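Summary for the steering committee. The consortium agreed at its last meeting that each partner would contribute one worked example illustrating the joint modelling workflow. Our contribution is presented below. We chose a case with several input lines so that the handling of multiple components could be demonstrated. No manual editing was applied between input and output; the record is shown as generated.
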Amino acid sequence: MTEALNVTALTRESQWRRRLLQPMLRQRSAMVGLAIIAIYIFAAVFAPWLATHDPTAQDLMASLQGPSAAHWLGTDSYGQDLYSRLLYGAQLALIIGFASVALGLAVGVAIGLAAGLMGGRTEWVLMRIVDGLLAFPELILAMAFMAVLGLGTENVVYALALSFVGPFARMTRGDVLQVKSQPYIEAARMMGVPTAAIIWRHVLPNVVSPILVQAGMRISIAILLESGLSFLGIGVVPPTPDWGLMIAEGRGFITMAPWISGVPGVALAILLVALNLLGDGLRDAFDPTTQKDA
Amino acid sequence: MPNPIFSLLDVERSYELRGSGWFRAPSRQLKALDGVRLEVQRGDTLALVGESGSGKSTLIRLMLGLEPASDGRVLYGQRDLAQLDAEAKKRFAREVAFIYQNARGSMNPRMRIEDILAEPIRLHQLCVEREIPARLESLLLRVGLPAGLLQRFPSELSGGQIRRIAIARALASEPEVIMADESVAGLDVSVQAQVLNLLRDLCRESGITLVFITHDLGVASYLCEKIAVLYLGRIVEQGPTDAILNTPRHPYTRALLQAFPRFDMPLKASLSGEIPSPVNLPKGCRFAGRCPQVQAACRETDPALTALDAGRQVACLFPVAIA
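What follows is the complete predicted structure of the assembly.
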């Protein structure tokens, strides 16, 4: 009896491994990306302990200094410590990235589900709204929204989330339409499974993996857009430690003190590359058609 | 007359075919089912036999309430299927189970077998949560599968196993009627025999009413006591299995029987040509174009399903004489 129990436990675990863990571990570049992201998350979470200075403390006597023992990555034109700002900036970038994607995903998936499942007039109306959202490039849409809402971290999240609703809604609807025509949905309906349970148990699990992969990729876009908004001066409010703001501030001193823009710029670039590596890896791991033997 | 569990009263099912292009061609109608009259008694085992495109699957979908009838009525017990209230619908869902032709496709690929089988049990609250594992094991035992499969996913089972799981799921809701669409088509003969025996034992032991779709008369005769032969959306002959097999009265049934490969006889293609398109039905008997003994009257008059003798009905103007 114990043996039989062990067997089932083993299959359950190996199942999970075979379906999720192993395909992911096989993606080497994805693992590299994951490691880099882990470092960023570590830096963001422990920023208060790792930072050497208050990220917003100004010290005009020590402005525009290069890297030194006191200021590891130098200071900007207000004498703020770049290393400390970089750490807190990572915090902000990751929070905005995850929050905006999560919000956009929740709304977009809800719209896509409603459109795909109800069909008819509801679908038509919802998809025309989504088309409207998709007609604008993400940055333009976010800028327009920021202009209406005003500056601030929360508003950046809302603006970015809005620009993500369209892609998520469209993708979810497509997948739902495909899953909806599968016999197991009809079988469940015929067995008398309530509609809510059909959506929750039968539709969602079968559309969720491409959505998650997409979400992973969107996070890097979100961080890039957020930095772009801040760079343009319509994102978060200075002196909040934000990479986009930091790059913008350093712009005027690019010849005298290239590290002011360079430090956050490099940090941003590395994070984006890491996120994209992970996103590609996730896609390859979940999509059997792109799986290669590595 | 004992009370029939299903009665179909002149059921029709037609699909609108829309013309395409700028100037829409006038829409035409495709009649998938045309005036089907059928009664299924409690405890019956009925086979619906016919070629591809004869309307077998449409008929069973109508009986399951998956599609509405364009005309006529489908009665479950005494009540019209189209007018069931929520309560009755729920009962219907429990009492009538369907086994899909595509057994694998009828199961959520992301659910384990145990969850798939437990779903109808939980749904209709047939037993308390803590008894479910034992219930699942006994279900698997009944269809002859080891309990170890419960943790698997549908994609990990073989074709024969997955069909037996489909049968187990149908049984899970303790139904009174099981409908099955080509449940053994495309299986190895050995596996086919297992599945057929399983279905047969289930019907004999628990008195389940079975409606079984097949294009294989051999399967039909093994499993079912009654046969209804469909041709182009209409029942052309129905009656007890042995009577139909031994003395087919409709030329189409006879042709089907002759097309059945046998060990001791050379096979000749008894039916020439394809089943005609149900869009442009010929005037008169719909089998006239392929009938080996067609007569002038056949092209004029559409024969109705008429009773010949005990429980035997044929739609033919000149039924084949008993040899």
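Residues 23 and 285 of chain A are 5 Å apart (CA to CA). Chain A touches chain B through 20 residues (CB under 8 Å).
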